[in-house]
Every structure is written in C-alpha cells, then in structure tokens.
Amino acid sequence: MSNDTSRTDGSATVTPKSAYHHGDLRAQLIAAVRDLIETRGPDGFSVAEAARRAGVSSAAPYKHFKDRPEILRGVVSEAMDRLRAAMEAGAAAHPVGSLEAVAAIGLAYVDFARSEPGVFRLVFGLTEGHENAPELQQKGEGCFGVVVQGAAACLNLSPSDPEVQRRAYMLWSFVHGHSFLHIDMKTKVTTARIDDWDYLMTISRAILAS
Amino acid sequence: MSNDTSRTDGSATVTPKSAYHHGDLRAQLIAAVRDLIETRGPDGFSVAEAARRAGVSSAAPYKHFKDRPEILRGVVSEAMDRLRAAMEAGAAAHPVGSLEAVAAIGLAYVDFARSEPGVFRLVFGLTEGHENAPELQQKGEGCFGVVVQGAAACLNLSPSDPEVQRRAYMLWSFVHGHSFLHIDMKTKVTTARIDDWDYLMTISRAILAS
DNA sequence: AAGATATGTGAGCGGTGCTAACTTTGGCTT
DNA sequence: AAGCCAAAGTTAGCACCGCTCACATATCTT
C-alpha cells in the first residue's frame, strides 16, 4: 500500500481530500481535538464536536480510534513529538555541553506549556491511560532523554551515569514545576516574576555546578 | 478510624443537629466526589453517580451546587484546606527558621500528592475555573504563604521581601514538579530514585543558602 | 471483473448534565 | 399554636454524548 504518492505525515500540503474518502481523517480529528482542548479546556471537548468540525458523522471517529481516551492519547502522542522536537531544537542552538544548551531545553519546555497550556496539562494529566500505552511511556522517556543528554554533555559524563540521571531529574522537576505554576497562576505571584531565560540559566547552573 | 466529618465550608459549618432532610448533603457529596475521583480518575466521575452514592436523586446536587464545575471547585476548596493544614503541621514539627521546617513543608506537599493523586491533579488542573473563583485563588495564595513564611524565617527576612518571594517560588516550583513527576511516572526513572526527605533537604539548602 | 477490506452513514441505546414543576420539611413570624 | 414560606428533596424530561450495529460505498488486491 506504500507504493503510491504522498506519505501521510500530517503535512497538510495542498489537498486534504486526496486519499480514501475524506483525506487523512485521523490527523484532522487530532487537530480538531487539539484546537477544542485549547479553546474550551481539556474537559470541554467531545468526540461528536470534533467529528462535526472535521465534517464527518459522529460515528466516523470510531473507525480510527477505539474510544475517547484513545483519541486523547493520539493528541498526547503528537504533542510529545512536537515537545521533544522543540527541546532538541533548543539544545541544538547552543554549543554542546554548554549551560545555555540545558537552559534552552528548559525554555522550550516552558514555551510549550505557555503556548499550549491545555495540551500541556493533558499530556501530564492523562497518566491514567499511560499503563496501557507503552508508546506514550516511550515518548515520555524520550523527552527525558533529551534532558539527560544535555546534562551528561554538560557534566562530561555518560548519560547512563546515575548522577547524571539524578541531576536531569532535578532539572526536569524544576522546569516542570515552573511551567505548571506559570500557566496556573498566570499573572499572579508577580513579586517573584522573573525572566524565564535568566531563571533557567540560574537553575541550570545551580544544579549542574555543585 | 472515626469518620470525623469536619467540613470547613464557608457557609453553614458543622451543624449536626439541624439536618434538614438528609443531613449535610453538601459535605457528603464532596466526599463522594473525592472518592470517585481518587478511584476512577478525575474524568470518570459523574454528578449522577455521586448523588447515587449519597442516596439521593440525581437532581438533588443541584440544590447545593450550581453545576458540575462548582462541585469540583468544592472538592478543590476542601482539598486546599487540608493541604495547607498539612503544610503548616509539617512546619510546626520543626524549629522556626530551620531548614527542616522548610523541607517538612515540601514533604507534606509531596505526601499529599502521593496519597491523593487524583485530587492533587484536580487542584492544579482546574485552573480554567479559577478566574471566577476568588476563593480558590485566595486559598492558593494561602498555601504559597506557608512556603513564604518558612523561607522568610529561614532567611531572617520579611515575608514581603522580594528575595524571599523569589526563593519561595523556586522552592514551590521544585516541590511541585517533583510531586507531579512522582505521581506521573510512578515507578519509573528508578535510577534517579531518592529518599524524599534527603531530596527535600538538599533542595531547601541549595535554594535558601546561596 | 470480483471479492475483500477499509472507510463512511444513520439509527438507536443507555447514561449524563441540567431544568422545570411539584411535594415535603421544619424554622420563623404573628 | 397556626400558618406561612424558603429550603431541600422528588419525578419527568430535554438535549447531548459515547459507543455499537447494520448497512452503504470507495479503494486495494488478485
């Protein structure tokens, strides 16, 4: 089935209705759900409405997803891909092993949380379904791996070194908490307000140089 | 295990004698919802089922709560009261101004997240409704205030000092991230596994002594 | 050309959020 | 004490949602 023309990579180049009946309905549903989650909150989304937005009947989604949670898992999976890509891109913009590279990873994380708070919360709130979703587990570990890589390069140690893992965990913990607090109390705690980059550099230095 | 139903609700507090038709249905509904959230996940709860557990019709809850989100807000409000009490109790178990007091605040936070992961996630995932709920905002600031108090005592500065606020924010960010990662990837990242108390002491020292 | 299979539709079942109209309860006024 | 009246509960019901089933149609394989 792969000898034909374009790949279904969600590029959405020109014609969304070139494949089977509808186009790549699966990708369009995920996009619709993502949008709904972002605008109406993680709970205010329904499969029916996503189908409506995609222009199909309310039963069509179930040809591509087993049930509602599986759709959410699809959204999370896609989001994790983008999150990891953003983190890697952030790291790649700075010299390997530099503190700046580590801080850039954290900044990508925070930026992601701020630009898509609904999806971000979903990613880390969907852990109920994680048990049966090794793919998500794997992608989560992949994201953590980016932090580990950065920390290892910075410390000039092997990524498998427990000390590296420990510091990476501390880094992630900090950045994760900062992201969550940031999107939770948006403009609150203004007295403690700080520039993200300075903050992340300070944190990275404190954790990787002790 | 005496079932001590002490609901510190804004309006009619504990009035066991009156009990109109049913008793304090409001408190019982909140308890039922809390239990449902903890066992079936934050999404797998329905007002109907909570009413069923409380032994009333499915319309009865709407005499006490405007809608579903308001019930959730009630659960969050009650949970925040307990969280703050736990944090204060943790701090009170150690000398004022000691690093141990600060670490104990963090430990209470982590323990709360671990013992009620569903409710914990709800507390910080319900921020969509926070805008119209100044009561929750206020209680959130109250919890933050406990951390600020601890940091201020430790640094021998005023709680209103920006530097204190900044450090308190860092502490909270760290503990919050640690809690979330902890309940998310329960047994994962085992290589980085650490004793909570040691971890929190290390963090507290790092943040409050630089 | 002819299945086989993937992808869509419409009808429909049970459950849910919420409202409306009604009944019961018990405190408060007189 | 009589009686009003608001609080607190009930049943009935609407609209929507998740999901399934039977069926229609488009594409792939042979």
Describe the structure.
2 copies of one chain form a homodimer. Chain A is an all-alpha fold. Chain A has 2 domains: 25-63; 76-208, Tetracycline Repressor, domain 2, CATH 1.10.357. In chain A, 65% of the residues lie in helices and 0% in strands. The first copy, chain A, contains 9 helices and no strands. The first copy, chain A, has helices at 25-40, 47-54, 68-92, 99-115, 117-125, 127-130, 134-155, 162-184, 196-208. In chain A, α4 crosses α5 (117-125). Chains A and B meet through α5, α6, α7 and α8 of A and α5, α6, α7 and α8 of B. Chain A binds a DNA duplex (30 and 30 nucleotides) through α2.
Provide tags for this entry.
Tetracycline Repressor, domain 2; 0% strand; 210 residues; disordered N terminus; homodimer; 9 helices; mainly alpha; 2 domains; DNA-binding
CATH homologous superfamily caption of the largest domain in chain A:
Tetracycline Repressor, domain 2
The major β-sheet of chain A equals:
none
Biggest interface:
A-B, 39 and 39 residues
Instruction: Just give the CATH class of the largest domain in chain A.
Output: Mainly Alpha
Beta strand count of chain A: 0
- Fold-level CATH name of the largest domain in chain A: Tetracycline Repressor, domain 2
Instruction: Note the overall shape of chain A.
Output: elongated
Order of helices and strands of chain A: HHHHHHHHH
Q: What amount of the residues of chain A lies in strands?
A: under 5%
Unreliable spans of chain A = 1-18
Indicate how many domains the architecture of chain A comprises. 2
Q: State the helix count of chain A.
A: 9
Radius of gyration of chain A over all CA atoms, rounded: 19 Å
Protein name (chains A, B): TetR/AcrR family transcriptional regulator
DNA-binding region (chains A, B): 46-65
Organism (chains A, B): Roseinatronobacter domitianus
Domain HTH tetR-type (chains A, B): 23-83
